[in-house]
Structure formats: C-alpha cells, structure tokens
User: What shape does this take?
Amino acid sequence: MIFALVGNQNCGKTTLFNALTGSNRHVGNFPGVTMDTKTGAIRGSKGNFVVDLPGIYSIRPYSNDEIISRDFIINEKPDGIINIVDATNIERNLYLTLQLLELQIPTVIALNMMDEIRGNGGTIDIAGMSKLLGVPVIPISAAKKEGISELIKSAIDTAEKKRLPAVTDFCLPGPVHRCIHSISHVIEDHAQRIGISRRYAATKLIEGDDKEFIDRLDLSQNEHELIEHSIIEMENERGLDRNAALADMRYAFVEDVCRLTVVKNRVSKESLRSDKIDKLLTNKYAALPVFFSIMVLIFWLTFGVIGNFLSELLSRDIDLLAAAVDKGLTAYGINPAVHSLVIDGLFAGVGSVISFLPLIVVLFFFLSVLEDTGYMARVAFVMDKLLRRLGLSGRSFVPMIIGFGCSVPAIMATRTLSSERDRKMTVLLMPFMSCSAKIPIYAVFSAAFFPGRAALVMAILYISGIAAGILVAALLNKTAFRGKPIPFVMELPNYRVPSLRTTILLMWEKARDFLRKAFTVILLATIIIWFLGAFDSQLNFTGESSQSLLASIGRLMAPIFRPLGFDDWRIATSLVVGFTAKEAVISTLGVLIGSSASALDTALPALFSSLSAVSFLVFTLLYTPCVAAVAAMKRELGSWLQTVAAVVGQCLIAWIFAFAFYRVGGLIF
Assistant: This one.
C-alpha cells in the first residue's frame, strides 16, 4: 500500500518521513525544504510505502507545492493519508485536516510534538479529538521517535479495512450547510465518475479557483447555473463571500474541537525563548549587521581556522600517497603514458579537488546549525524588505540560501514560490549565489595571492555574488519582469537546539555528493584533459603540453580573456572545462601545470599577477553555472531559448565585471 504524508510547512513532516522509513533525508527548520515528492519503504512493514509531499496549508492551486500535493492525492489515489499535525499550533494545522477529510480517503492523524505540549503543562484529549474528527489520532514525537510504531500499525489497519473518515459535515444547519448539500446532489454522478468524494467536489465548486478540476467534472450549462444560484443565495444569507463563508465554517469547527479537547496551561517556554532572541535577531537596526557578522565568523572558522587546517592535512596526505605511487610506478618501469595518466592526470586533477573536501564539510556544518535552529527563517523575514525593493519577496531568499550549497536543488526550490514571475526571476538570479563547487577555486587563489586573508577574500566573494545578483534583479524588475512581488507570509518556527544527527547527515550528504562528483564527472574530465594535453594532433605521446591538441584548442579561446588580464591557453581551457563542474577548473589547472594539490598555489603566480588573479576570481564567481544547473534552469523555465539567453547573459555579465575590475584596478594600482 502507498500512504501520502501530508502536513503544514515546518510541522516535522520530513522528520517523520525519516522516522517511518529510516531515510537520511535532510531536515530543515524553515518552510520550503521539501520541494518535491519522495517515496520510502516503511520500516518493518514489507510492501508498504510512504510518499513525502511538500508542506502545504490548503489543497488549493495557489502554489506549485499545493498543486503537486493535490495532484498526487487525487490522481494517484493513495491507499491512505498520514496527516501530520503540529500539536503546538493545532488550530492552524487542523484547517488542512478538514480539507483532507472531505476527500473520503482512509486517514490517520499523527499529532506531533506532544512532548512539547506535555513539557509546558498542556494536555490533549486524544480519544475525544479522534471521535470529533472521525479518524484515528495518534500522539507522537517525530524527533524523539515516540509513537511511530503505533502510528504505522494504525495507518496500515485503517487502510487495509478501508475505514473512511466518519465525520465529513463540519457545519451546523444553515446557509453554508444547505449550499454544500444541494451542490453535492447536483454533481453526485459526476464526482462518482471521476472517483472523487462529492463533498470535496462541492467545496471545490464553491471556491471556484480550480479550473482544471472543475473541467474534469464536465458539468452542463444548466448544472453550472444551478450551482451558481446556490452559491449566490448562500452569500446573500450569510453576508460573506463564498471563500470567507467556507473558511469561517472550517475555523468554527476547529475552534469547537480545540475547545473541547485541548488544554494549554501556559505559553510554551520555546515561544518565550524565541521572542527574547528575536528582539535582537529581527531587530530593525541590528538584524542585518548580526547576520553579516555571523557569516563572516563562519567564513573565518571555515577558511581560516578549522577547515583550512584539515584541508592542509588531507592535501599533505594526498601528496605523500602520490609520491609513493610515483616511486612505485618508476621502480616498476611502467609505460610513460600510463605513468603520466596516474600522476599528472589522476593525482594532479582529482587529488587537487579532493583536498578541499574538509572546507565544504565544515562550511555546511555551520550552515546546518543555523538552519536547524530556525535562524534562517528569520533571515528570510529580515531580507523581505530589501528584496521587495528589487521586485522579489523574502520567500526567494530560501532558495538563495540553498544556492550556496548547490545551484541544482536551489533552482528546484523555486517551485515553492506562488508567483510565476517571482519564480522565473529567482531562477535567473540563482547562479549568482556562489555554490560550494567554487570553493576549491577560491581557496587555491586565496592561498596563492592573499595568504593569511583567505576568510576575508571568501566573505568578499560571497557578498560580491549577492551584490551582483541584486543589481541584475533591479535591472530585471525594470525590464523583463515588471510588476510587484506576491505578499510574503512565512511562519517563524520556534528556536530549537540543533539536532546532531541532522547536522551529521547533512555533512555526510555533502561529502558523499562531492566525492561522487570527484570520482565521476571530474575524473572523466581529468582523463579527457590529460589525453588532450598529452597527445598531439597525430596522436603521438608528447611530454610537452604546449604542443598538444589541448593547446591548439586553448589558443583559439585565449584571446577572449586577454582583455581580462589572463590569456594563457591553460587558463582558457580550465574555464571551458569548468562548465562540466566548477571543481574541474582547479583539477584542469593541476593537470595542465603538472602541479600537486599542495603546490598548485605556488605555481599560479607564473600565470597570474595579483590583479589578473582577482579578475579571474570575479569571472569564475559570476560566469555560467555547471551543465547540471543549466539543465535544471531549462526544466524550470520551460524554454531552451530563455535558458540559452540566461547562460549567454551571465557569461557576458561576468566578462564585463571582470573587465571593469581589471581596467579600473590597473589605473589605481
């Protein structure tokens, strides 16, 4: 059987998914982490699966995540629904529950965060709530894995016996009640034909905003007129428009349920603690300085202290291994071409990239802590005012934060934006957020040209990328994307102590992705670059890369970069290869220069001056993302023309910024 896991944003849904399936899915403490569906097998229950749907507040087609959830439930027809409800915000969460119950699908409610309710002296009458809602209610704590086995047992039993919600009528006799029932009778045959509850179909017709669903009912003109007459009659009697009347009916029922079953003795200590912290972190004047100070501290710890120390240790070990392998291959008398492939290709290429793994892991340790505490949600709230001036809302900041890790999931995260305008505009800005794949480039060049100031250089580069994105956003807002952003509403979760398990899982996930890329894409690119750099046009092995096939190709590209201060064919080649993966820029330079991971920074001054090195950093900061990110852009924009225009435009922007810096810098220095 298949169960749909449905709930509000930030209610612990992904945490519950991990507890049900044993999955290592990343858990974040701000809305919008789950951008798509994910299926996992329920542990200890062979043949049963759960699908984690995006967090939603209603089943109405206002945003992509709501459409994804609605389409899965209606079209895929799961055997059951596990509706996770945040017990600390139960009134808001139960609004979605009532909409789910109207679907008449076997449903179980997982009442999450019951440990917090008990800790604050509150109680919930579980049996009473179950009777009022007409479905099983199971108290759980997803984070502590309390009540999970009971939830699984109840969900499977409910689905196997096809036990439908016993309560579907949430309103007292009156105008709304009469309207829903009269429409239900009109459309009964149509709803049965498409396999949908007539109650759910009736409320959708009253709301009137789901044209796709209404078209599926295939109603006659006479039936449409009868339905509209009933709705207008209800509005006149109730004194509210149709949507307000339905919302009022649902909230009145929720209030009755909570009044009869929920006792909250005092404001939770988590809320009190969060309010005190927010007086500083969301303060009108202090919020942004505090945020930038935290980010600078993270960069200093990552690139100047902890991460840099670990990276140097790993680099030293890779060099020792390379020297030992070099000595062994020489003693064995292996073919010179194979010797060159292993030492000048694999160790100089892949090895130079792997040495930066500690930097990425340490950076994401700190970012995970910020996210898991709930601080990132505050940053999105604080950034809303600035982003609104650029034509975006604060919700766009969430994908941008993800973009510091990888552009691909960040671009996919824009699906949580309700407005098509906001979504496409955010997609186009995403590549300006400096992804973790560029860290090896920044680290090598900082060590070569700015020793002892790597953390400062990193901070400047990241902030410069954001600033460039802001300028482009302002330009797009005045040209291709005129209009106003949608209103920004985001629930600010309580601050919570970061989960060590979640943090370690995220670090492992990033390390695994980095190593997978190193031993697939970068390894393949390294071998190709080594081959092109080791053989001439007659495929003769040559020890001089300047006479190779690669040199001929690179020299054709070099003039494009001459105005930027670097025209060596090796540099041009590394930038072209960087289109496959940004880490490949460093691995390519390592192969072409013939330098080990630890010695690459000492070899670069032969190719760059300090000024041209900064120009190179500016270009790599801003030029087109990797091919995987471009494919994600095409998927979200839905147009190859727009995607190609975005890629070309970004390369042009990178060239202009690098050119301007090099020329202005040359006049000053």
Q: What stands out?
A: The two ends are 70 Å apart (CA to CA). Residues 287-332 form the longest helix (46 residues).
